[in-house]
Structure formats: C-alpha cells, structure tokens
Amino acid sequence: MGEYKDKAKGLANEAIGNTKQAIGKATDNERLRAEGEAQERKGEAQNLKGKVKGALGDKI
User: Fold this and answer.
1) Where in this protein does the record put region Disordered (predicted)?
2) Count of CA atoms in the C-beta half-sphere (13 A) of 57
3) How far, in Å, CA of 11 to CA of 26, rounded?
4) Which of 5, 9, 20, 54 is deepest in the core (most CB within 10 A)?
5) What was the pLDDT predicted at 46?
6) Mean pLDDT by 10 residues, the chain (60 residues)
7) Where are the domains of the chain?
8) What's the pLDDT at 2?
9) Whole-angstrom Cα distance, residue 55 to residue 42?
C-alpha cells in the first residue's frame, strides 16, 4: 500500500514543482524557478521510491 502513497506524493510534488518553475520563468523569479526544480526532483525521487516498493512488495 505504501507504494501508491509514495507515487501519489511524488506526482503531486512534480506537478507543484513544474508550476513553480513556470511561474518563476514567467515572472523572471530565479529563486522560485529553482525551488520548483528542486521540488520536481523530490517528486521524481518519491515516485521512484514507490516503484521500488511495488517491485519489492513493500518490504522496505
């Protein structure tokens, strides 16, 4: 069950990160763009964690 929770959190963080990046680019706000990029990477890592949990059967 934890795999789905991690994947959902990961997708949410990726979406929020992409939005922050777009707003940062549109407003020429480098800090917001960088924050969005970091959040997107965090989401990608969470999504990967969920995939690994799924492959290992939630044993981690």
Assistant:
1) 1-60
2) 0
3) 23
4) 20
5) 95
6) 87 97 98 98 95 77
7) 2-56
8) 80
9) 20
